[in-house]
Amino acid sequence: MDSTPSPSSSSPFDLVSSALGRYIPRGGAAAAHPADSRDDPAGHQPEHDHPAAGPPERILGAVNLDRELRVTHRNLEAPVFAGLDAVIGSPFVDLLPQGDVPTVTRRLRQVLDTGEAHVARVQRLRRRDGSELVVSMSILPAAAPQEGLTVSLIAMARRLHLYAAETAIGTSLDIGETAQSLAESLLAWGDVAAVDLDFAVWTGEGVTERAQGRIRLRRAALVPDRAWPEGYVTLGEDLPGDASRLLAQAIRRADAPQSIVLPDREAIERVLGSPRLVRALVPGDRSAGVACVPLVLEGDPPVVLGVVEVWRRADRPFADSELLDLQELVARTSHHVDLARQHQREHTQVLALQRRLLPRSAGRTVQTASVYRPTTPDSAGVGGDWVNSFPLPDGRTALVVGDVVGHGLGAAATMGQLSMEARALLSAGLAPDEVLEHLDETVTLLDDPESGLAAGYSALGSTCCIAVYDPVSHRLALSSAGHLPPILVSPDGHAAPLPVHPHPGLGAEFALREPFGVHTFVAPPGSLLALYTDGLVEDPAVPIDEGIGRLAAAVSAVHPWDTLQQAARRVVSEVMPTRQRDDVTLLLARMIGYRKGDTATWRLPARDDAAARARALVAALLRQWRTREGTRDSVLLLVSELVTNAVRFAGGPITVRLIRAGPGLLCEVGDTGNGRPRLGRGGLLDDGGRGLHVVHRLTSRWGVRWTDTGKVVWAEVVR
Which one of 257, 359, 439, 527 is most buried, counting C-beta atoms within 10 A? Predict the structure, then answer.
């Protein structure tokens, strides 16, 4: 041993070292005598699967590494580690089989970068005589990052190997990682291991109804990581159809899933029958034997999820006991594969819903681009982040971003409900603060156990931010419920978070509730608005204000001529935390607005001659716009009816606005009244409802929106 640890030391290396001599696989205090290994020149130790088989062995060792992954300390005194050349100053990867170097190096670097331990992975180590030792390897970060890593090694007795392998395989719900962990564990029995899954399992679909013998296999895992012969099926590729059928027929003999062993190259070539299939399935010339073990989900009848293949050289034939161990390991872990399949199915469904909610178009007056990146696939499902942008019927544009608490189907269902509710309410003319009031009530109802809507999921604390852009006045009306402030970049490039009054999230306790406010900001043409969720800027390593500042700097660097979608992807790549812990969502909106010559606004007193004055002003503008006569007559009649109704029922100053928008003309009449115009059941001769019936027949669509001072009735006429 190179160092004697202090009993009071708390470094991982010292803690592991202090346990040496006391970590006994079957209990007891006896340590292996040095003479135990003298009969075996290679240093191989007999396995003791029974207390009477001999004295128990010391099986724990430790190696300390610096940040360059070189050995700085070692404690490998147990005889089982004889033959491992862990020389001080040498690279740790010298202890590994060549094919395992890339994978293990990547794991070591990952622990250095993240500080999160990598625990209990089955690993092979190479002795100086070329033989291999199977260990359970854990990678622990040092107490201080500059001190490197501690690698603990537990020599694997067979039963301990099975337990450690099953534990490692069950740590992820990602189907690819689960298959990879299984393949890595299988390397203890061979030189190459592959996991081929039914394509329906890979995509998360059900497999119980699939016909016997009809199976499409996809390579889900392959170890070690190395260069493979030309034509060999590698990770992510489908096996040839003939190969899939042969494997299916072989493992389903006598209508029951069974393992098979092809002991030599001659048997392999005879079964496969063609050089093309040999190239596709045999990993190299030295691979002379293979054990194929079905991944079976127990049931009536049992369901085959895929096939595991373990390849060996000719000088290492499979013993019956080894085949039994292989079958036991695969049987123990098949349910993990099925759990990953179910998670994959949920993940795919939620992600599809998430994608459907992404904005498609924001109309002619705003350009938008969005980016959504879910958390890592081994999370409990896709989260509840959502963005939306859509043109409102009255010519304005709505921009919405929300973050529903939680992950999975519950969060996705709530996300979809809130998104559609917000769109419907905004399209009906409600102001952003009124929409948030309705969403707040919806979240409260969903959480109320007496309403029967909770179903074990709570969305309390979800956040939302709504911005509505008026392309004529070039102003943004914005309301927020607990959401991070949007960032507005002016045409001159100045970027800053908008000063939005903080508000509790949706569904807050009654005592914490307060009215939602509406904040108005000027957004001239060329302005850029960034709406986002906290996953983009929250990083435990930096304050949240610094994350928002980094986002503002990245958005301000977007050039007016940049393609907005490419710019959005670049901003996310620059700002997103190194280790993503939550969904990341970004919506960029570039304000365009209407050209000055395409709009006109007049303010008229609420007098009996208001309708006549409005007709004269509008007629002059329509002649200037060279509007065809039929359209001009319809617009003049429409303006006359709307202004007359405003004078008769509302009072106060009247605002008339005309907008030339694409193929249509948008007419707006605002007043100070708060009554909602409604179509009555009367006909055209019924004086009480004649005006709105005329409006209804002249226009392609019409509606009402509410303002702080009253209402605006708008209507669109096709030119």
Answer: 439
Query: Can you state the percent helix, strand and coil of the chain, rounding each to 5?
Result: 35, 25, 40
Please name the residue that has the structure tokens 């969005």. 370
Dist CA 691 CA 637 (whole Å): 10
Sign of CA dihedral 340, 341, 347, 351: positive
Handedness of CA 550, 535, 490, 543 (dihedral sign): negative
Three-class DSSP category at 385: strand
Q: Three-state SS across 224-261?
A: CCCCCCCCCCCCCCECCHHHHHHHHHHHCHHHCCCCEE
Residues 6+ apart with CB under 8 A from 130: none
- Has residue 299 got a pLDDT over 70? no
**Which residues does residue 292 pair with via DSSP β-bridges, in sequence order?**
260, 309
DSSP string, 561-616: TS-HHHHHHHHHHHHS-SS--S-EEEEEEEE----GGGEEEEEE-SSTTHHHHHHH
Q: Give a three-class secondary structure readout of 146-164.
A: HHCEEEEEEECCHHHHHHH
Say if CB 467 and CB 432 are below 8 A apart.
Answer: yes
Mean pLDDT value across the chain: 77
- pLDDT one-digit tens code per residue, 422-433: 999 998 888 999
**How large is the greatest C-alpha to C-alpha distance in the chain, in angstroms?**
116
Which amino acid appears at position 332 of this protein? R
Say what the pLDDT of residue 457 is.
Answer: 64
Helix (H, G, I), strand (E, B) or coil at 685: coil
Burial annotation 381-394 (CB, 10 A radius, 16+ → b, else e): bbbbbbbbbbbbbb
pTM (2 decimals)? 0.57
Nearest to 461 by CA among 490, 477, 483: 483
- Return d(Cα 92, Cα 114) in angstroms, integer: 20
Short-list 2, 290, 36, CA closest to 155: 36
Q: Is 692 in contact with 704 (CB distance < 8 Å)?
A: no
pLDDT digits over 534-580, tens only?
A: 889 888 778 889 999 999 999 999 988 888 999 999 999 999 887 77
Q: List the structure tokens of 91.
A: 């690279």
- Residue 314, both tokens: 């000719």
